[in-house]
Request: fold
Amino acid sequence: MRKLHQLFAPATNPAGKSRHTAIFAAMENLQQQIAAYQDEINAFHTADAEALEAFRIKFLGTKGIVKGLMTEMKNIAPDERKAFGQTMNSFKQLAEEKYEQLKSSATAGTLQPAGEDYTLPGEAITVGTRHPLTLVRQQITEIFKRIGFAVAEGPEIEDDWHNFGALNLPEDHPARDMQDTFYISTNPAIMLRTHTSNVQIRAMEKGKLPIRLIMPGRVYRNETISARAHCFFHQVEGLYVAERVSFADLKQTLYFFVKEMFGQDVKIRFRPSYFPFTEPSAEMDISCLICGGKGCNVCKYTGWVEILGCGMVHPNVLSNCGIDPEKYTGFAFGMGIERIAMLKYQVKDLRLFSENDIRFLRQFTGAV
Reply:
């Protein structure tokens, strides 16, 4: 490498003596800078990735030393710029080679960021789980599938006929007050369904008998949210319509379901009840799984918890759907999935199912 003072020797023209003297002094200063930078580069050794990045920025960055020295090209006599460019290229090549050497060492594992330890195990990837209501719904569905029930679904936005009228609930029927309904403000004849019975009506209207279906889905009621109630929840309803279907068929079907869902030791009882779409009607209780039948706040200290309503399909409902009630009979039942899940997993607050608290949901990993 030629010395910079050799590249920029003073000219013999007396008129330009002062200018050449200034150029010579400037180039001596640049030569000293480059020599110092070369020594710094050759002495640079680090096990710190942050320091290596600082080296790159200082020497090779867009505002680094190499680019800064390159801007001095304009101050050099035109006939000497080629030699100066060669000097600068050598300096740049030295910085780049040093950086690549250290970078290769980092790739080989001899260099690591300050405060980092690549020998430590990585962070575990959290795998999602199925929601407890999904688990319970799937289990209910599988139990009924084993005894011949298929699955049907229907719209959540429904008209008055399929949600109320066809179910033996005319407009002036007092039983409509039993359910606080979300109506569409622009059309009061359209509403969010209050039960999945609308799917039963649509299935019976098709006239394909016999019918043996369960209808899971989300329903909506304008209720105050509390530990035992919500404005939306999930139901599974069942329907069996054929010739000579009896209440005994209904009881044995539900006995099978309860034993499969909660175990052979659970106790069961039926109580007379009233529903406008079934006659006779009943409610089914099981012994409280939380207190073992001894009495607690969940079972209101009775030892029993109601899990579903049921009954024989009312003849008026069959007639409304075009089915001859003299030839066919049927039974229907309905249960809240949240109620079944609360009993199965001993959850005491209904709101937990819709709060998306990961601490709660994580408990159901692999639960069936």
In short: The radius of gyration is 42 Å. The beta strands are 150-151, 157-159, 183-184, 187-192, 211-220, 232-242, 268-275, 278-287, 304-313, 329-336. Residues 1-12 have pLDDT under 50 and may be disordered. The first strand starts at residue 150 and ends at 151.
